[in-house]
Amino acid sequence: MPEIKIAVQAKSMRMPLDRLLPIVKRWNAHAVELDARGDINPQSLSQTGIRQLRKTFDDYEVRVAAVGFRTRRGYDSDEDLDRRMEATKAALKFAYDLGAAWVINQVGHVPEEPQGPRWNLLLEALTDLGRFGQRTGALIAAETGSESGADLARLIQALPPGSLGVAFNPGKLIINGFSPQEALTALGPDVSYVYAQDGVRDLAQGRGIEVQLGRGSADLPALFGALEEHGYRGYWTVLREQSTNPVPEMADAVSYLRNL
Predict the structure, then answer these.
(1) Buried b / exposed e across 133-145, counting CB within 10 Å, b at 16+?
(2) CA distance 200 to 51
(3) Strand pairing partners for 202?
């Protein structure tokens, strides 16, 4: 069984990069997912700034796994869409400049029926971003969780080949009432990035909640085996969105993944 390539989401750590990278190095993690909607703005970063950023990562022998660029609206909404598209393209170029192949976003609501204005707008926007990404060298990966795996697979099949990857997040799927196993059955060949996040359904409150990795409903060993069957060799990125004490919990998550 191959070694898991472990990455750490910078946004979850809630600290500047100069404090984060020594910790990631100490954990023997391989890479970091940067947040291009937070401290770093690709549209305002000069080529000198990008070179300095690459040198910082090189000094710690840590790679950039992906760039997170989670927009407030998806590409199915025409409100400020032109500006959102321009910013996304800047994030794609930024990712490529840092050696990362993927920009992660939730692309928008996938309509139940493959027709209508929102469906057409989503296809048009993602086709445009896919063409730009193929020219640039980095592509969008749609994070799972806001729809079933089957619905997301239907969207991918409607796009030109190679337009959109999948950032598979079992925790988000569980929290939103979907089955990670069923999603992986539908999306397996298109998975290009994986999150190590866990969750449970709180029946008393009628909703899902995030929990520490290994303490929820995500069957990580089974998912790892299924992804291996699909030939997945990419990163498993640790994150914690709701924790009040994320750093030690993420350290435990890194250890948990190694023990797989």
Answers:
(1) beebebbbbbbbb
(2) 42
(3) 207
Closest to 95 (Cα-Cα) out of 46, 34, 143, 52: 34
Angle 221-140-251 from CA coordinates, rounded to 5°: 40
Please say whether the beta carbons of 110 and 118 come within 8 A.
Answer: no
According to DSSP, residue 39 is labeled T
Cα-Cα end-to-end distance for the chain? 10
Q: How far apart are CA 219 and CA 45, in angstroms?
A: 40
pTM: 0.95
Q: Each residue of 78-113: pLDDT tens digit?
A: 999 999 999 999 999 999 999 999 999 999 999 888
Give the pair of three-digit tokens for residue 114: 């493959």
Paired with 33 in beta bridges are 9, 66
Rg (CA), the chain: 18
